[in-house]
Design goal:
By secondary structure, the protein is α+β, with helices and mostly antiparallel strands. The protein contains 15 helices and 26 strands. The chain binds adenosine-5'-diphosphate and 5-O-phosphono-D-xylulose (5SP). Belongs to the FGGY kinase family.
Length: 488
């Protein structure tokens, strides 16, 4: 049996699956937590990856591995390949003003949508580069290359960079996998960084529609042009690990989830992780000048229009903490209250918000009365509030012309029975819940198997099975949410 491994280095943790390359059956898995916070030193991701691999029983019997990771995180490297400063993550909103400045610099939101398919918000790498240039000019000047979390981890796995004191020492040029025809700048310390279309499209300086970087936009943000990773094809390998495992190209976590689920046009995936995302695989690119829908690429050569909220599973965590209950009890409480929670609405902007673009917003509760001041009403309002944000995202995708035949619900928050049962009511459509699984890591494993096979299309894997949840739509819940959403 040929085994391949997939990695999901996401916001809260690193997960590893070991999979039968022929069928996609998950044979082993492991995980390790990431540190809290909205900035992280990449070494912490590497340490968590090593722990998650050990937890999965090691990769000694695997033939290939690929890494998916949280999108957008700004990893700045100096000329020796050393990390310049901790990475600013997708959920770090300090670059909100930089986003506004960049939008103005290029002539408005429409100009960005046309240039790269997305209007930058604080999550995008390009805005973080502008923040760095303005607030830490010395670090900006030291930045010779910029990459993303999956790019950096993949580069680490090539074994080229060796730690020596405070520096990564690359293996001498010529010992790697070959030339770098697409590179924008010079190699970092002789080692080659690589990425893929999916993750590159979240930078704000790569167009999924044209398949090209916009180096001028990276330079506009940072003040000079950094080295940018070579963009690999969907099954193109960046090389091998020192132990001889073939590496897949890797991608962003949402693109990997789409691949892991085998999503096809007409499928809309709703993921409730640290972020809430609503996305679809599409043959054609989008360019939404309102900024709600980001025009990302997927991991198969197609497109991945996507809406992202910053408040999803952690809204449930916060509700648990507030009520002093665990997730099972929170779910029971939410299901014991009537739809609409008697008029109690929780607007869940606990970490600021990205869609709508309100980086400084805070959460709020509306409609608190003697009757609604109960744990059950609050639990229901928390579940409905986070789902209303995602329902708005689904509407935005539809407004961009995305077809919706099926809605699939995944991510850590999909383990909540209340979320599964209330989602079809709030979204107004039946919801398919695939068998519990780490679909981002499985998608990365599928990339690894694809690179190994060298076939034109990704390997066909068995359907993981699913449950269908149906409910009468509750449009009144969304109307009430819309009434208070923007009150602050
Ligand atoms: N049974 C559950 N009910 C609701 N939320 C859950 C449950 N189990 C885990 N979660 C939440 O899911 C989140 C982790 O989801 P995950 O998709 O792994 O996030 P990420 O990929 O962003 O790190 C955590 O906030 C966790 O508390
Ligand atoms: O910023 C986005 C998408 O644009 C997020 O979806 C990140 O990619 C983080 O994902 P999770 O850790 O929540 O899965």
């Amino acid at each position: 049996m040929t085994l391949v491994a997939g990695v999901d280095s996401s916001t809260q943790s690193c997960k590893v699956v070991v999979v039968d390359a022929a069928t996609g059956a998950v044979l082993r898995s492991g995980r390790a937590p990431h540190p809290d916070g909205t900035e992280a030193h990449p070494d912490a991701w590497r340490a968590a990856l090593d722990r998650a691999v050990a937890d999965a029983g090691g990769l000694g019997d695997c033939t290939a591995v690929s890494v998916a990771a949280q999108q957008h995180g700004m990893v700045c490297l100096d000329g020796d390949g050393g990390v310049v400063r901790p990475a600013l993550l997708w959920n770090d909103t300090r670059s909100a003003d930089a986003a506004l400045d960049l939008i103005a610099d290029l002539g408005g939101p429409g100009a960005w949508a046309e240039a790269v398919g997305s209007v930058p918000v604080a999550s995008f790498t390009v805005t973080k580069l502008r923040w760095l240039a303005e607030h830490e000019p010395q670090s900006a000047r030291r930045t010779a290359a910029v990459c993303l979390p999956h790019d950096w981890l993949t580069w680490q796995l090539t074994g080229r960079p060796r730690r020596s004191g405070d520096h990564w020492e690359p293996t001498p040029a010529g010992s790697g996998s070959g030339s770098a025809p697409g590179r924008v700048g010079p190699p970092v310390g002789g080692a080659e960084l690589s990425t893929d279309r999916g993750d590159a499209s979240g930078t704000g300086y790569y167009s999924a529609a044209t398949g090209r970087y916009r180096p001028d936009l990276a330079a506009l943000a940072l003040g000079h042009l950094p080295d940018l990773p070579r963009v690999l094809g969907p099954a193109e390998s960046p090389g091998a690990t020192p132990d001889g495992l073939l590496l897949g190209p890797g991608t962003g976590d949402n693109a990997a989830a789409a691949l892991g689920l085998g999503a096809r046009p007409g499928d809309v995936v709703v993921s409730i992780g640290t972020s809430g995302t609503v996305f679809a695989v599409s043959a054609t690119p989008t360019a939404d000048p309102t900024g709600a829908v980001a025009g990302f690429a997927d991991a198969t050569g197609r497109h991945l229009p996507l809406v992202c909220t910053m408040n999803a599973a952690r809204v449930l965590d916060a509700a648990c903490a507030l009520l002093g209950v665990d997730h099972t009890r929170l779910s029971d409480l939410a299901l014991s209250a009537a739809p609409g929670a008697g008029g109690l609405v929780l607007v869940p902007y606990l970490a600021g918000e990205r869609t709508p673009d309100r980086p400084d917003a805070t959460g709020s509760v509306h409609g608190l009365t003697l009757a609604t001041a109960t744990p059950a009403h609050l639990a229901r309002a928390a579940v409905e509030g986070l789902l209303c944000g995602l329902a708005d995202g689904l509407d935005a995708l539809v407004a961009c012309g995305v077809r919706v035949d099926r809605v699939l619900l995944v991510g850590g928050g999909a383990a909540s029975e209340a979320v599964r049962r209330i989602a079809p009511a709030v979204l107004g459509r039946p919801v398919v819940v695939p068998s519990p699984g780490e679909y981002v890591a499985v998608g990365a494993a599928r990339q690894a198997a694809w690179s190994l096979a060298g076939t034109p299309d990704a390997p066909v894997w068995a359907d993981p099975g699913s449950l269908l949840y149906e409910a009468d739509p509750t449009p009144a819940v969304r109307h009430r949410y819309a009434e208070v959403r923007d009150l602050g």
